[in-house]
Structures
1.
Amino acid sequence: MDDDECLICGHSLWDHRHYPVKWELVNDQQVSVDREMKERWEAAKDGEEKLAVLIEAGNKALEELRQVIATAIKDLARLVDDYNCLALSGCFSAQVEKTVTLLEQRFQGMDQKAVGQEQLQEVDKYLEHMKEKLRLLRNAEEQVQKETVRVVLHTSVASIDGHR
């Protein structure tokens, strides 16, 4: 770090972390056979019936993936809350602000990928919840600073009165 900037990547000190982790892209292939769907496919008499079976199978798989995404979003929200409870940083609002930024980026990415409306609403709901937490934290920090200034001013006035 040089001043408030990383010499390697140029990120500011506030937006930068070095973690000893290597990320790898792994293709996850899953093969499953729905026996009932297979039997319906084999029993289909023409292309139209087979197409109907394929569409139904595709819709079923899509719904299962939507459920996986919804569960992952809820897990992410729970983990962020758990992390926030464990934060040892003196500036807790900075952690919440980073969470808000992360969720905003995630929301934009999901919106651009045309993810289902239900998932977007779930992320947006949690994003608004975190923005409210951030607003409350900032208000509390401002109040603490005002109280600190009052105590310092009060002490200074008392010292001046004591020297008279």
Note: The chain has one domain: 32-162.
2.
Amino acid sequence: MLLRIPGLLTLVIWTIIISLFVLFLIGSILLYSLAKKYHNDKHTSDAEVRLMYACSYIGFVVTALYACLMVVLMRRIALAIGIVKEAARAVGKIPFLILLPIVEVVGVVLFLIPWVIYVICLATSGKNETKDYYGLKYNQYVYDKNTKWAFLYMLFCWFWTSQFIIAIGQLVIALSVTAFYFTHDKSSIGNSTAFWVRRWPFGSAVLAAAQSFR
């Protein structure tokens, strides 16, 4: 609701952007003044003076490029602000989306429990052998080739499953916002939209959005 207050989001975004410009400018000025101070200091070498001047000039160039970037991207920034406002409206209508990351964390934890058990079983399946290193004896687990490939497979399972859970959350958010945007009657949108998307994550959501838009 705060993001939807007229002018508030624009004020916040442009305050951040202009603040970065001011920080770049102040930093460059301070570097230049420090370079002049080094120039007047007899205990400072010429290399240090040249380096400080070079850093100040680089700072001024970066500040100028940042200012040009602000001017060029003004329309893009305004478009991004409008998109964030529309997203805020969608989240306001579907507040369950705020809790969706918690649901994803629960899913990852439920997968992590059996995954850790399997990895521990693999880790203890090696053969304990005594090694000798220049008279120093120590114990080491030695694994065969199949066990090493099993470790790589478990690592692949972790990366694939965790990213799959995150991707499902991204799809739910994307399709929920799509359903909100293309539905004319916004009163029909609510938390049930997110659960409806979970049941039909692909075709039904897109088809319903297209029909509402038409």
Note: Residues 145-182 form the longest helix (38 residues).
3.
Amino acid sequence: MGFVFNYALNYTALLAGREPRRPLFASWYVTHRCPLDCIYCSDGEGQPFHAEKTEELSTEDGKRLVSLIRKSTTVFDVTGGEPMVREDLEELLRHAKAQGLTTILNTKGIGIGERPELVESCDVLVLSVETLEVDKLAGIIRRPRETAQKLLQALEDGLRLTRARKKKMVVSLVAMPGNLDDIGPVLRWCLQHGAVFQIAPQMVGMLPPKELYANPRYQRAMDEVIEAKVRTNLVVGAMGYLKNLRELKSARCTPLLLADIRPDGGLYYPCIELKYFRQNVLAHGGIDAAQRASARDFGPVPTDCGERCQIFCHMALSMAQGSLVAGLAELKTI
């Protein structure tokens, strides 16, 4: 099933008052391991992902999982933890491309310059950075200054590699009380270099920090992001999502648009924040069957999550799915 086909089925379901269930994206957390200790990293319960020691699929089982994902969607996001700690990442991405998947690699990118095949084997490279100031970045990742310098070097290397291969590069920023003055410079770096900008607020558990609510510095930064969205195609996220983000307002979430999969193949249901993952995609032979089994065990998808979980992967997808105009516009940025 392709992105457009699934989008159409979901849109029809929404018009009929039903919960959309076709995944637009599948996101596989290939590992929870990470050499960094970013202050904002949270699994929905306030713990960093690397705190949970989770079994990882072998290369062959990982390739089987990728093939099963292809039966449900054509857009495949690889994330972590830090996915680049897996030495077989190139092989997994090559397999995804061979399956005809549009492949997105989410990484901090340290060392990407020495692993150019990773860029060769993905369609979109997403690099995460919260500031361009090296000392401040070192504090955010809780690692020495030299490590922060390597992270900033990854931006330059990623830009060079994606340009040479005509791939898309996205710079993803987590907005926190301590980096509000850094949002504008990172956004402007993206606009200057033709990279796509993505923003989401920090989550403390499942809620944004209280210091962001009605914060004029945060709102001014979001105004600059929204203005850039209006005049360029270099900001990802439906306009409704960005405006909601400015006010940190609640919105109806349709979490099944994103299939989140653990390192061991377990399917998070209905989303990673609610933490139900008893059913395994490999054991069930696909996302759809694992989702149906999860629904029988977990129950119906919540219809109102309030102001929690303002993260891009669920709220932005939900708002793009709910508006045909917004959804078609977002195709330009992915």
Note: The longest helix spans residues 145-164.
4.
Amino acid sequence: MAGEMVYEGRLRNAFCYIGAGGHHAGRSSSWGFCCFNDVVLSITNLREKHGRIKVAILDTDAHHGDGTRELLMEDKDSLHFCICDRDFISHDGTKIDVSYWGREHEYVKIVEEEFVPRVMKFRPSLVFWYFGHDTHIGDYGDIGLTVKDYVKIAQVVKELAAVVSDEKLVVVLGGGSLPQIAKEATLAIIKELLKT
């Protein structure tokens, strides 16, 4: 519903605070508490109602968005950019994995210098951001990130959406287990989304 409301201009952007991320849910398998692939279902719903729509997805959960990748692998109208534990670029350049190993201190830089130019070239009508706070210091996917890093990514992605998709941005909560970090991070990102 949030994706539909944002795409149709009823909301400028949205933060979907769901119980568990969906990026590990594929066609016939799921794990990591992901039962349904929420972002792919949203994209499917939009295309059924509005026809061909190009979307870009930034996945900053600590783990690879394998379900999303499986479901969208042959979809040339979906740019899926995942910062995870591996490097990969599909032959058509629409499916990209960038490893954070050895680059943990460059995480925001990866978003700025590798995701942004690809999206600028791709020109989607809607941007999704799978946000996982499991990357935060002390959480189960700890790669040293902080709430300050998340806010910076929010600023970058929001500015990007303003240029390529008329501000149409949907942030979807992914993994993370620390309630205090969930509270701090999500509220900080929501405050950033609310700024005009």
Note: The beta strands are 13-16, 55-59, 78-84, 88-89, 95-99, 126-131, 169-173.
